[in-house]
């Protein structure tokens, strides 16, 4: 690809964030952004989509661990299985919007309050 047509670092970070948070299922048509991002991944025995999914899984696990550290009493009250499900749902419904984690999870209690299961 010619150098002048390459996205800059800010654009690549935006593509990666969008792909990471929103994901891309196999039934969706690939976009120019996802093609661009996937073409930059180093070739290995994993497909580019598998590499993104591995990173996405680690990302979600890290956010779940953060929420568990912030709300240990809530986790004890609702139980580990339910906490894992609801924190996963929170991560999907309220994606991380900034790179710092200082404020992430602050709305978890109000999110739980809206759930009918509780």
Q: Which series of helices and strands comes N to C?
A: HHHHHH
Helix/strand/pairing category: mainly alpha
Uncertain stretches of 5 or more adjacent residues: none
Question: How many strand units?
Answer: 0
Q: Please give the count of helices.
A: 6
Radius of gyration from the CA trace? Answer: 17 Å
**Could you give the distance between the termini?**
53 Å
Major β-sheet, in short?
none
Helicity range: 55-70%
The rough form would be described as: elongated
Overall mean confidence score, pLDDT: 79
Structural domains: how many: 2
Q: What amount of the residues lies in strands?
A: under 5%
Give structural notes.
The protein is mostly helical and 118 residues long. It folds into two domains: 1-40, no CATH class; 45-118. It is built from six helices and no strands. The model has no long low-confidence stretch (mean pLDDT 79).
Q: Would you kindly provide a brief summary of this structure?
A:
The chain has 118 residues and is mainly α. It has helices spanning 9-22, 32-39, 48-70, 72-78, 80-93, 108-114. Helix content is 62%, strand content 0%.
Topology:
Layout: H1 9-22, H2 32-39, H3 48-70, H4 72-78, H5 80-93, H6 108-114
Helix pairs in contact: 1-2, 3-5, 4-5
Tag the structure with descriptive keywords.
118 residues, mainly alpha, 0% strand
């Amino acid at each position: 690809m010619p150098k002048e047509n390459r996205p800059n670092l800010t654009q690549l970070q935006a593509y990666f964030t969008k792909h990471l948070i929103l994901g891309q299922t196999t039934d969706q048509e690939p976009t120019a952004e996802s093609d661009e991002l996937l073409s930059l991944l180093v070739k290995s025995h994993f497909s580019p989509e598998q590499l993104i999914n591995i990173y996405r899984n680690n990302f979600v696990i890290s956010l779940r661990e953060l929420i568990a550290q912030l709300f240990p009493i809530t986790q004890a009250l609702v139980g580990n299985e339910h906490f894992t499900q609801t924190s996963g749902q929170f991560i999907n419904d309220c994606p991380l919007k900034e790179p710092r984690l200082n404020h992430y999870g602050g709305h978890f209690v109000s999110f739980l309050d809206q759930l009918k299961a509780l």
